[in-house]
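Summary for the steering committee. One of the milestones for this cycle was to obtain a three-dimensional model of the protein with nicotinamide-adenine-dinucleotide bound, which we needed before selecting residues for the alanine scan. The sequence and ligand used are listed below.
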Amino acid sequence: MFTHHQIPSYLTQHDIGPWGVYLEQIDRVTPYLGPLARLVETLKRPKRILVVDVPIEKDDGTYAHFEGYRVQHNSSRGPGKGGVRFHQNVSLSEVMALAAWMTIKNAAVNVPYGGAKGGIRVDPKMLSKGELERMTRRYTSEIGIIIGPAKDIPAPDVNTNEQIMAWMMDTYSMNEGITASGVVTGKPISLGGSLGRQAATGRGVFVVGCEAAVKMGMKIDGVRIAVQGFGNVGSVAARLFAEAGAKIIAVQDHAGTVMRESGLDIAALQAHVTATGSVVGFAEADQVKDPAQFWAVDCDILIPAALEQQITASNANLIRAKIILEGANGPTTPAADDILHDKGVLVVPDVITNAGGVTVSYFEWVQDFSSYFWTEDEINQRLTHIMREAFNAVWQISEEKKVSLRTAAFIVGCTRVLQAHEMRGLYP
Ligand code: NAD
């Protein structure tokens, strides 16, 4: 599929994974970049990759070692920015792709950052709280040589939250001998976190979803929605859509799938997940045995909000939704994109749909620098404005150039990055 030239020596054809998806997306946008296309090679290579060993002492006195990563994909428009993922399947290819999607996303919504991402290959559910803290602190210390408020600013992603961000902020601050609130975003409010940050990604998905629904002549009131992933992104998006009158008819998480034709009670489902760790066993719903059935649910809007490469050539044909809102990063493969396009399904890409998180992370970073904090209303209003503008700008380009929303978003993002790269010139 890829030429030898395209695969970096540290990946193989076998493990090219999500990075391969990203490369294909770049190939698809390149013909639309005009003279800037000559610089596109820079987007196909991460600027910097750090792989670290993260050893910890377990509660039983033995040692365990985990593999950690921080990838800075591009810094033409500003410092690196992107989340940290703790998951048993984290790989270099995945972190590279997630870092690259951050570059495109930050440029597409015009926040002044490059793109970065990090992760540890670990199932955090297997660690005690003390082990989790020691692992987070050692990882932060190991990547401390390349992160910083003006260098690269991590944030939460899958299986990381404000407690992890607090430990990261504290570790970096201790090592540097300062209180560096701006080194991470998604922090607790008491440490310089921003109001509205926790719900920002889900809120952005909701705002973009409402805009997309208008374009498709759909009313949110009564619309049927299926959500994959009921964590930070999926649960907030589900709640906001439900509050606006939508029916959330199916939810799938890592452990199982629940459905209810008349609409799930999202507050009750949230309480069940908080108490038990998954949607499985939620009493006010039908339990679905076959996970594949989720994709064939008769809904109007489908929100993948879990992991990448979930919608593929093997299930895209089953999908009955008219709109897909990519809450997750990279949930749809290029082959599935083509199938969905042929079926007339509107795919609203990750780099726009889930940009609410990094947008409010940007607000948090600005507030930390000025030590002046905004109200939640101000934050939500500014977030809504940025998300609507970004969606509509991308919509317009997709109409003008007759391309998918993904390619349109990549046109906006890649153009901004490559213009900055061109103006800065090649050092030395
Ligand atoms: P999270 O850890 O809070 O939740 C992840 C959810 O996905 C959980 O409900 C989990 O059960 C579910 N899940 C995991 N594996 C699954 C599987 N194989 N099948 C079905 N469900 C599965 O993570 P999150 O922060 O909500 O992130 C979800 C997605 O959104 C990721 O792709 C992430 O990169 C993206 N994202 C997150 C943010 C953010 O601010 N947190 C911002 C932008 C994008």
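Key point for the committee: The first strand starts at residue 48 and ends at 57.
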